[in-house]
Each structure stands twice: as C-alpha cells, then as structure tokens.
Amino acid sequence: MRELWASLFRLDPLTAPAWPRAIRAAVALGLPVAIAALLGVPHLGYTAAVGSFAALYSGTLPARERAKAVPFIAVGLVIAAALGVAVGWSRPLTVLVLALVAIVAAVLVYGFSVGPPGVMFFVLVYGMFAHVRALSSEQAAIQSLLALVLGTLLTYVIAIAPLFEKRPDAPTRPLREILPRSRWDDAARLLLERTIIVAVVGSVAGLFIDPVRAYWIVAAGVTVVGISVVRTATVGRGVHRMVGTVVGAGVYLVLVLFPWEPLGIAVLLAVLQFGIELVIARNYALALILITPLVLVLTGAAAGQFGSVEIAGERIVDTIVGSVLAVAVTFVPLPALRGRRGARG
C-alpha cells in the first residue's frame, strides 16, 4: 500500500524523448477542430478530431514503421465508429454491439501485439458515435462519420510527416514484425479472457445504470485490466484511474466556467493532449487528470453537450464501476490462469 500511495506522486523516468510524439498528437487533435471552426462547422471538427486517436498507437516507432501500422489502427477506429452509427438508434442493440466491439478489438489488439493504449479507444470511439447517432438524425451521424474519415487521413499525414524531411534511409521492419502475431501464450490468453469478462459484465451493468453510458464503464474496465496479468499492477492501475478521473473531473468543472469559442477549444484540446503525452508514461494518475477533461470536452462538444456539469459526475461513477470490475476480475480463476500455475509447478 505504501508503494501504491507513493506511485501516485512519483514521476517515472522516460526511456525515450516524449516531446516529438506529444507534438504530433497535439497537432492531430487540435488542427481539425481549428479548421472546422474556421469553416463554420465546428461540430464536425470534434468528430474529425477523434481520428487523432490513431496517432497514439505506435507513437514511439520510426516514421516509416508508423506509416505501415497507423492505417490499420485508423481503419479499426472508423469501423468501430460506423458500427456505433449503425446501431445507435437502439439502446439495447448499442449495448449488445458494445460488448462485441470490445471483444473483437481485444482479439486483434492482443493477437497482433498492438500495445498501448490497447482496446480502450476502439470502445470509446464506438460509444461516442453511437451516442451521436442517438442524439441526432441518421444524416447528421453519417456526416460526423465522414468527418472522422477525413480526420484519420489528416492524422496519417501528421504521423508520417518526418518522412518528408531529407534524412538518410534507415532500416525498416516489415509489417509482420511491427505488428507480430501473438503466440497466444498464457499471459495473452489471460488478458483476453479478463477483457471478455469486463466487456460482457460492464455492458450488462450499463443496462442497469444507463445504456447511453455503458461504453464509459467498459472503456475504463478494459484499460485497467489490459495492462498486465499481475494483480498488483491491475490494482495500481485501477487506483490511478479512479484518483486521476476524480481530480480530472474537477478540472473539467473549472474549465467549463469560462466561455469557450471553437478555436479556443481547439487550442485547449491540443494543450491537454500535449501534456498527456509528456506524462502518461511517467505517472498514469497525472495523465488521467488531463485525459478526463480532454475526453469530456471532446465527447461533450461532439454530442452538443459541452459544458454539461452532470457528465462529470457520471464519468466518476462509470470509472469507479469499470475499475472495480477490472480489479475484481483478477480474482476470477480462468483457464489461462490455471495454465500459468501449471507451468510454474
């Protein structure tokens, strides 16, 4: 417990400079919002900015390798969003497909060793676009989906921007080495089994709490449970997420006290994203203090609910439910866990 408490206030050392990927992520998030604001369609800028989440994957890879990996992430996010638009008109169907999206995303993420941030953004993007569809017409939701496609294309250009600089050619691994197929050892299978339980139970819990918010519960749960097979690591991740979310919700409540124009929101999102990338590998709770207001601003603005005070409290409840569920799952005896114990014996 002393180590867990200390970890909330400790900055771990970086293994590589974070500012290059922080700049890319900030530009990819803020630029589409700014462009849409200047064009007079700010609501489409917020959904286009969701495409920037693709840049958060493979961020530490060389540009030539990112050029190979990012398109697959981007396509996955667009498919998740399209499914959200397709079923968002029905709350029960939205929750059912939510569990399927989380499970399929987990199979692909663990099956091809995608790495952080893992399953979370596929769930988040699906839920966000299902919410947009629930609150708007089919035509408006499709327009938002097309904006996302444009946002992912812009993100891809930003992700590979260093390729346009004149530099000596460096060895580039083939895609099968960048995203290698998993051997599905006990650790990978255990992460998948735990994620499936969180996806199913979290979706069912969402039916009772609020089907519209179910994706927040699942997103929090899969993020916590997918970091490590070690229970103490999962518990630590869950505590960091709950503490960071509570403080981050407070930051959001302060931010919405001020009047924000679309261009100001673009700058705010870019600044938050830049800060997140600088600290996320050093202190997860500190990163959540920035991630929470960023996601609340972005998803709220996309759904026309920017400035809502209620959603801050809802996110705290959803995060606690998802995090507690993720920790509880680590106590469930699963086939892969028995395999690990048998191998040690």
Structural features, described:
The chain has 345 residues and is mostly helical. It is built from 15 helices and no strands. The protein has helices at 2-7, 19-39, 42-49, 63-87, 91-111, 120-135, 138-159, 175-178, 186-209, 214-225, 231-255, 262-279, 284-302, 310-329, 335-344. Helix 4 runs antiparallel to helix 5 (91-111) and helix 4 (63-87) runs parallel beside helix 6 (120-135). The protein is globular, with a radius of gyration of 19 Å. The model has no long low-confidence stretch (mean pLDDT 88).
Largest sheet: none
The computed structural class is mainly alpha
> Share of helix among residues?
over 70%
Count of helix runs: 15
The chain-level mean pLDDT equals 88
> How much β-strand is present in the residues?
under 5%
Tell me the distance between the termini.
29 Å
- Shape summary: globular
Unreliable segments of 5+ consecutive residues = none
Instruction: Give the H and E element order.
Output: HHHHHHHHHHHHHHH
Number of domains: 1
How much is the radius of gyration in Å?
A: 19 Å
Structure at a glance:
The chain is mostly helical. The chain contains 15 helices and no strands.
Features:
345 residues; mainly alpha; 73% helix; 0% strand; globular
Secondary structure: elements and pairs:
Elements: H1 2-7, H2 19-39, H3 42-49, H4 63-87, H5 91-111, H6 120-135, H7 138-159, H8 175-178, H9 186-209, H10 214-225, H11 231-255, H12 262-279, H13 284-302, H14 310-329, H15 335-344
Helix pairs in contact: 2-3, 2-7, 2-12, 3-7, 3-13, 4-5, 4-6, 4-7, 5-6, 5-9, 5-10, 6-10, 9-10, 9-14, 9-15, 10-11, 10-14, 11-13, 11-14, 12-13
